Amino acid sequence: MLTVRMRGENTTVAQLPEEIDYDTAALIGAQCEDLIRQGCTTLVLDGSRVEYLDSSGVSMFLALWRILDARSGTLRLAAFNAHHRQVWKFLGLDTLLPLFPTADAALAAPAPQDGMDRNQDAG
């Protein structure tokens, strides 16, 4: 499901699969939670391969954001296609959890001051 591309002391970049739906969201979420339990405080999820994303996936991202926020960590979503970015913005989620244009941009972004990613527009 989730492919870890880079792992540092506290930071992990992972590639999401092509489809995130009811069946896969729970598995992906569990994998991410394992990474968090192992000490990851900055989790970058690369969505460049994601073609299908339903509400289960959105719920999973929000649950991961809450878990990391409670640990003063950060969830960064990156490289989603134009359709997914448009839906994310339409839902108003871009103010809570911005989408970065690339995983590198997500890694380079400054840490949020209050423990939450509230950038108006990440790119």
From TrEMBL:
The organism of origin for this protein: Streptomyces argyrophylli
Domain STAS: from-to ranges: 9-110
Gene Ontology MF term list: anti-sigma factor antagonist activity
Pfam family, one: STAS
Protein name, UniProt field: STAS domain-containing protein
PANTHER family per UniProt: ANTI-SIGMA FACTOR ANTAGONIST TM_1081-RELATED, ANTI-SIGMA FACTOR ANTAGONIST TM_1081-RELATED-RELATED
InterPro entries: STAS_dom (IPR002645), STAS_dom_sf (IPR036513)
Domain of life: Bacteria
